[in-house]
Design a protein that fits this description.
The protein has 181 residues and is an alpha/beta fold. 33% of the residues lie in helices and 22% in strands. Strand 3 and strand 4 form a beta hairpin. Helix 1 crosses helix 6 and helix 2 crosses helix 3 (52-61).
Length: 181
């Protein structure tokens, strides 16, 4: 474990958290959402069942009163709040398929854009983003003895995104202890 330092290190190394339940994943996302800003893209990756939609539920529910539903069949759900949110699920989109959905337009309009299955997004790399990876490593799960345990890795791209993630990590560390790097 190391102390939090230069935001450029976050981009390169990332931070790792351990979530032992869907509720902890939602709580973590809710806390992280407080550091979000208009135009931020949050790219959420992981296998089926890793907790991507639970992460989104925690993030969105901390910023709006709207009920969060998975947009697997609608592709995009919008949520109104102080900062509007677009929740995009690209699971059913094939990589490089032409999409009539312009995620860049949501970014320009000042939405926070939450993207599940970002590997299927064929758009430009966002300038300001957080990359959240939810992993279920089998060896880790067996040693932890919990099937709901997830490793959550957060990295960033862009000056503002990295500064905000740095602030979150500093606050998280102050409140909950050290953070693995």
């Amino acid at each position: 474990m190391t102390s939090v330092g230069d935001p450029s290190r976050i981009e390169k190394d990332g931070f790792n958290f351990v979530s032992s339940s869907p509720e902890e994943t939602k709580t973590l996302a809710g806390h992280l959402s407080r550091y979000s800003f208009p135009g931020l893209v949050v790219l959420i990756s992981g296998l089926l069942g890793a907790g991507k939609t639970e992460f989104v539920r925690g993030f969105v529910s901390s910023m709006t009163r709207d009920e969060v539903k998975s947009p697997s069949f609608t592709l995009i759900n919008e949520y109104k709040g102080n900062i509007p949110i677009a929740h995009v699920d690209l699971y059913r989109i094939e990589r490089n398929a032409s999409m009539e959905i312009s995620l860049e337009e949501y970014i320009r309009e000042g939405f926070i854009v939450l993207v599940e299955w970002p590997e299927n997004w064929d758009g430009e790399e966002p300038q300001e983003s957080w990359k959240i990876e939810l992993a279920m490593p089998e060896d880790f799960l067996q040693s932890a003895g919990r099937k709901n345990t997830r490793l959550v890795k957060a990295t960033c791209e862009g000056g503002v995104a990295c500064q905000r993630l740095e602030r979150f990590i500093s606050g998280f560390r102050s409140a909950w202890g050290e953070v693995e790097r």
